[in-house]
Amino acid sequence: MLIRRFLTAAALAIALPLCAHHACAHEGAGHNGGRIADAGPYHIELVTKGKTVEVTIYDAKEKPVSPAGFKGTAILVVGGKPARVVLTPAAARLTGEAEMALGANPKGVVQITGPDGAAASGKFN
Amino acid sequence: MVPFRLTAAPRALAVALALLVLPFLLNPIDPAQAHEGHDHGAPQAPVSKTIAPRGEASSSAFELVAIPRGDALVLYLDRFATGEPITDATLEVETPSGPARAEAAPDGSYRLPAPWLAKRDPKDDHLDLVVTVTAGSDVDVLPLAVALPKAAEPAEAEHAGEHEGEGWLHALTEHLTERFAARDPGAGLAAAGGFVLGLATMGLMRAGRRAPVLAVLVLAATLVLGATAFAHEGADHSHPESRAAFVPPPTDLAQRLPDGTVFVPKPTQRLLSLRTQVAAEAGYRRTVSLPGRIIPDPNASGVVQSSVGGRLAPPPSGIFPRLGTRVRPGEVLALVTPPVQRVDLSDMRQRQGELDQQIAIVQRRVDRYLKLAPGGAVSQVQLDEAQDELKGLKDRRSALDRIRLEPEVLTAPVGGVIAEAAAVAGQMANPGQMVFQIVDPAKLWVEALSFDALTPAADATARLADGRSLPLAYQGAGLADRNQAIPVQFAIQAGAEGLRVGQFVTVLAATDAEQRGLALPRASVVRTANGQDVVYAHTGAERYEAQAVRVAPLDGTRILVEAGVKPGTRVVVQGAELLDQVR
């Protein structure tokens, strides 16, 4: 009986970190219906609507991080041309306006600079 | 203290062994194994101390390497699939001080002035950049994490503090470890000395003598303390950081890393012009290799033979065509004068005499008739007959002279180059003897011996000893066995320059059997010193990894990799031999 309990505990101990790891898998839809990518110590979610670019920052545990103090730049490839969008903090996220409509899922890179000055970037394909 | 009671001697042995093992146990943990937490962006540190910190990024189209050099960033851009350098692209870099453009340098790299490198926080070990690459119609955005060289002062301070806390024991073990790592015989001697001292102590203790034990212990303590002092003195030049002051800065040499991969910096890659190819699996028809040799095309070559036996003489130009002379069809190559036998000569003389005699008689008759014919004494018919007879006799006489003098003219039956010449002036040629052989060097065939029947549609290639390969077109196969094989003829379709008639070639002809695998150029497979075939996979921007493969011959230029390489791997197809020389 003791052995069995011990085995169950061991199985749980092995399985739990694995599950947690899978739950943390970064690719896929985010909380706002956008795409999620890793950027240094953060996870960032990219949502493009028309010309607007919205980037939400999460920490490693998927908890939203206040964008105050953050700066950002999104470089997205639209129709074979790169579009550079400067992102500024607004409410709970970083936003910016592009010069042209960006389409549904433009590929590109979002670079964020934290309050400590360290830059990190996330790639969206 | 211990649950098992040991006798003194084994215990001494155990203590001595433990002392020996201690330095190895205290070996610092490999930093690569330490968990770094949740940080995906940081680039991995270079494995070798002679490689400068750098960063790399790649997409399906491009491969980018950035190296901080002083107050500038040097960028190298290549095509991802082929490894071809791109020197005319536009690189927009998102730097800490706003967007900037990297300028193309004459050596094929790009240079980005980076004054912000000097102003950075010394604690930063990497730098995150975003590079927008525009090359022709290809646009890509690459996030690039560049490792930065460590600032010297803080690191040293940090290390000093660490040593204060851990004390002399750690310093001693580290010192010993390093000396072991450097294969210092002194370290080994020290260990052996400790072992002997331990044995001596135990032996004396068992014998129950206290005073010598104390003496030995004091001796040991003195030695250890001395070594510690020595270690502290030596600590300055045993530290990697402070030692860096004497080591020249990283020079980025191509080298084989401890994990077996080959590091080749971008400038060296360009020097060696390394090119890759993305391996793709497909079905290929198996080929058989046949021994063959080059023969002249039967329709574009010919021999010049004398039909009569006679004396060879040069053509009217005065010289026989030499080997390699290009000739046109119908060109006169030589003259053959048939000899006249002695008996024939007397016969001809006799005949000449008879003819001369008859000509004289008929000539006189014609003269007489010419005088009489106007008077009507001789009819015109008689005169005409006499004149015709005279003409006939003179023709026969001159034909007899001509036969004695006129040689046979040997002409070229086809155009081409003289491949063989056996003509010497004055030589007697037998009837049917070959005097010249003419071959058109642009039209050559290959005759191979095949042990199985080939399908006429099969494509074939011929491989020469120098590695060249020629495309072949099937012409036909014989039915009569020759050495238990049938002769098969192929026409060389291109690249026949420099071939010799009779040269041996290996013909690779496709059969109906199909096999699956990855076709790679022959030059991509390298044989290593242990006789194994390897290909080099391009695993990182500047990393190449040897992968053992099983290969089968495919055709003249390619080989089939049956196992060892996954489809989609970037395999080095040019310069693999040079890459293999990197030590």
From TrEMBL, chain A:
<keyword id="KW-0732">Signal</keyword>
<protein>
    <recommendedName>
        <fullName>Copper chaperone PCu(A)C</fullName>
    </recommendedName>
</protein>
<feature type="signal peptide">
    <location>
        <begin position="1"/>
        <end position="25"/>
    </location>
</feature>
Automatic annotation (TrEMBL), chain B:
<dbReference type="InterPro" id="IPR051909">
    <property type="entry name" value="MFP_Cation_Efflux"/>
</dbReference>
<protein>
    <submittedName>
        <fullName>Multidrug resistance protein MdtA</fullName>
    </submittedName>
</protein>
<keyword id="KW-1133">Transmembrane helix</keyword>
<keyword id="KW-0812">Transmembrane</keyword>
<dbReference type="GO" id="GO:0060003">
    <property type="term" value="P:copper ion export"/>
</dbReference>
<feature type="transmembrane region" description="Helical">
    <location>
        <begin position="211"/>
        <end position="231"/>
    </location>
</feature>
<keyword id="KW-0472">Membrane</keyword>
<feature type="transmembrane region" description="Helical">
    <location>
        <begin position="186"/>
        <end position="204"/>
    </location>
</feature>
<dbReference type="GO" id="GO:0015679">
    <property type="term" value="P:plasma membrane copper ion transport"/>
</dbReference>
<keyword id="KW-0813">Transport</keyword>
<dbReference type="GO" id="GO:0030313">
    <property type="term" value="C:cell envelope"/>
</dbReference>
